[in-house]
Amino acid sequence: MTSATDPQPVAVVPRLIATDLDGTLLRDDKSVSERTVAALAGAEEAGIEVFFVTGRPARWMGVVSEHVHGHGLAICANGAAVVDLHTGGRVLKVHALERGTALDVVHALRAAAPGVSFGVETAMGFHHEPNYPRQISYDPGTIVAVAEKLLQEERSGSDVPVLKLLAHHHELAPDAFLTLARTAAGALASITRSSPSALLEISGPGVSKASTLALCCAERGISPAEVVAFGDMPNDVEMLTWAGTSYAMGNAHPDVLAAASGRTVANNDDGVAVVIEQILAGLPGREV
Question: Which SUPFAM superfamilies does its entry note (predicted)?
Answer without folding.
Answer: HAD-like (SSF56784)
